[in-house]
Structures are given as structure tokens and as C-alpha cells.
Amino acid sequence: MITVRDMMTTPVITVAPDMNIASAAKILLDNRVNGAPVVDDKGRLVGILCQSDLIAQQKKLPIPTLFTFLDSVIQLSSAKQIEKQIRKIAALTVAEAMTPEPVAVHPDTGIETVAALMVDNNFHTLPVVENSRLVGIIGKEDVLRTLLPNLQGN
User: pTM of this prediction?
Assistant: First the structure.
């Protein structure tokens, strides 16, 4: 069985929670990666920062849509969702812009599980964690590179 350990990329390009947004964006662009795991000073995964998190800063503040129906006011956007968007728009550090508690996989996870996570959740990359520490990262390109020899044989 092909596992994450067989496909993952090491070393991993990471960013720190206290890093400013401009520095993090430069790291993503310079390394031509869509995102990077966010690790604390002990190497523990605390979040993930994607280009989409940085692009979110260019959004306009969403105005909740309200309408009345039978003398009731109905809000179409949740206050929690609006608050989350405001935090991302105003973020100055990685910690404020990142997605906390990202989905991660273990090095012994099978390729089928990784493929399902990527397809079902539209993930481009998944951090690889072992013993609470980041040990690698696996992306769609890694999966394709592993499958390519098998596909060429058909």
C-alpha cells in the first residue's frame, strides 16, 4: 500500500504565527506554493495559511442582508461568519489570517484516504503530522507524481 510517507515532501516551507502578512506572502510567492503550514516555536502545527487567506484581505466588508417577513426580521448572513470575514480582512499577522486546526494526515495514511480528503474537501495540500510535530506536506502534485508510473504502464 502506498502511504503518505512514500509521497510527502520534506523539508516543509513553513511560516510562524507572529510573522507579518507581507513576509508570509513573499515566502509563498518566492517558493511558488499555494499555502504553508503555520508552526509554533516547538514545531507543532497550529494552522495553515493559503493564498486565498491573503486574497481575502482584498474583499469588501460584507453587509448583512435583512428582510422582513410576517413582522419578523430575518438576517441572511450569520454574525459569526461576518466576524470571521472581518478578522481576515483586517489581519496583520499570520495568526489572524490563517485557518486554525487544519486537517492533517499521519505518515502511515494511505493514498486512498489522501485522495478522498483532497477531492471531497477541495484541499490542495495536507500537512503531515507525527507525534504532534509537522514532518512533511503532501500536495496533489505529489499524489500525481506517485501515480504517474502506474498510469504510464496502462
Answer: 0.74
